Amino acid sequence: MARMKFLCDADRCIECNACVTACKNEHEVPWGINRRRVVTLNDGKPGERSVSMACMHCTDAPCAAVCPVNCFYTTADAVVLHSKDLCIGCGYCFYACPFGAPQYPKVSNFGSRGKMDKCTFCAGGPEADGSKEEYEKYGANRLAEGKLPLCAEMCSTKSLLAGDGEVIAQIYKERVSRRGYGSGAWGWQTAYHETIAT
Amino acid sequence: MARLFTRVRLIAGALALAVVLAFAAAATSPASAQQVNPTASSVKEQQLLGQLKSIQGRGTIPDTKSYVLEHPAGRDWREFRMVWLQWIGALSILGMLAVLILFYLWRGRIPIEEGRSGRKVIRFTGFERFVHWLTATAFVILGITGLNITFGRGIILPWLGADSFSAWSEWAKYAHNYLSFAFTIGVVLMFLMWIGQNFPTAADVEWLKRGGGMFTKKHGGHPPAWKFNAGQKLLYWLVVLGGIAMMITGYMLMFPFYGGMTVGSMELAEVFHGIVGVLFVAMILGHIYIGTAGMEGAFEAMGEGTVDVNWAKEHHPLWVDEAIAEQQSPKGPGLVTSTPAE
Predict the structure, then answer these.
(1) Would you say A62 and B74 are in contact if contact means Cβ atoms under 8 Å apart?
(2) What is the pLDDT of residues A137-156, one digit of tens each?
(3) E strands along B91-221, which residues?
(4) Residue A161 forms beta bridges with which residues?
(5) A177 CB within 8 Å of a chain B CB
(6) Could you give the dihedral angle defined by the CA atoms of residues A12, A17, A19 and A23, in that order, rounded to the nearest 10 degrees?
(7) ipTM surpasses 0.85
(8) What would the pLDDT profile of B13-29 be if each residue is shown by its tens digit?
(9) Which of A67, A95, A107 is best to mutate for the B interface (most B CBs within 10 A)?
(10) Which of A20, A87, A98 lies closest to B70 in CB terms?
(11) How far is it, in rounded angstroms, from Cα B252 to Cα B248?
């Protein structure tokens, strides 16, 4: 089994937000919730870079560690998923997450949170693969169909890579050695406790 | 002459060409060596993480809090929640229970030394008791549902099962959120109605010096006190201050991102809420003990609102005469006498 990871090549990201739009469309994500977003650093200054960020499907995921009801699980592909049936919307995974991935629909007054929603690496949830219930709660399950996450698949500059960590790290390394520069795999040190030597 | 001129011109032309070619070669070869490196000036993740607690940028979606790209400080909060808070909570609460059990085994139930007189004096009015029990009921539920968030996964989840535990925890979350308002009202009312009797006096110094008479078994060991002794005053101020701390941090967690709050400030709020919460529970366990099992004649003060005159004389001698006089005055309700025990 593969160890699935995301890698955003910040030297290629042109901040077109197609990944954000693709994700919202593919999973019919409701208003106010963004499973993926693009953040621009040093905006308008020399050295500006944009990074597309979503759940990184961490090794030893902090969200899973702090969840009071233990609603998270890790698939055989190392994708971090959760059960919306068990989630109580306490917000603790958001405090622990280094990437701001967990999102909550606002369901009532007093700012109380509904069931958490986050990037599933296009791998659905605990329901049967491709079922209607799974789609309604978590969106499409592309992994079960042998496809990779749509955000990366339709990235116009192939900046965002998704797939087996070994493979995408190799692609990135070859890129960096061919073009002679690379600003590194953003978030990898935090998420996977490793980085790509280039 | 003309031929010589032509030759010179040829040589000069060849030289010029050579120079131009040489320059061209010189110009092209360093160009490949000096290829522009766009990352030389670009932002670096490790550098940013070294400088800042979190990496913040600009985005194009309305959700401005999502412009924080990375916030590794969440790991410190995880360490607090999964290690520190568990230890602080377990030690303070189990420690308090152990102390109370040992104290009970050594001291037993603190008796009314002179026995009951059969005459009663009003200690708390109906309104005072209502406020106390409003706060107390809210506190017990808040305490249990709060501890569930920290300890439930380890203790209750294994035997309740994932689905039932989740259902209970969701209700617990709602109870915790909504009862916070009852608790807030209760603490504010207690603060206002008892503040007059809770300023420190000279008697409190003496009371504290003698440990409230709790650690001596000899008769007449209770140091004198007004309506509230120093221990009760301490409890009052800790409940007021702890209650305010719980309210502020609790509402910060209940209203996420209001008023420019960041993830960092909410993490900090949770740290305070957790630590103050478990210490609060431990303290109230002591309060419950001494108000029920630990002392004869104490519970009825909050239960029925009256206490036996002998109990009042032993524990609050500076207050009792005043209270009796007030009750026997023309405006007072008169002294209540209970039917003497046969």
Answers:
(1) yes
(2) 999 999 999 999 999 999 99
(3) 119-122
(4) A7
(5) no
(6) 170
(7) yes
(8) 777 766 666 665 555 54
(9) A95
(10) A98
(11) 6
Q: For residues B3-14, give the mean pLDDT.
A: 71
For B323, the token pair is 């209270």
Q: Summarize pLDDT for B253-292 with one digit per residue, the tens.
A: 988 888 888 888 999 999 999 999 999 999 999 999 999 9
Q: How many Cβ atoms sit within 10 Å of the Cβ of residue B99?
A: 14
Residues A181-196 have a mean pLDDT of 88
Query: Is the distance from CB of A114 to CB of A107 less than 8 angstroms?
Result: yes
Could you tell me where the beta strands, DSSP code E, fall in chain A?
4-8, 37-41, 49-53, 72-74, 80-82, 160-164
Contact list in B for residue A189 (CB cut-off 8 A) is 45-46, 49
Asked whether the beta carbons of B212 and B174 are under 8 A apart, the reply is no
In chain B, residues with a C-beta closer than 8 Å to the C-beta of A54 are: none
| Segments of B95-138 assigned E as strands | 119-122
What beta strand segments (E) does chain B contain? 55-56, 68-70, 119-122, 306-308, 336-337
Distance from CA of A59 to the nearest CA of B (A): 13
Kindly tell me if the per-residue pLDDT of B330 is higher than 60. yes
Question: What's the pLDDT band for B31 if we cut at 50, 70, 90?
Answer: very low
Q: Which residue has the tokens 């949170």?
A: A113
Residue A10 and residue A125 in contact, taking contact as beta carbons nearer than 8 Å: no
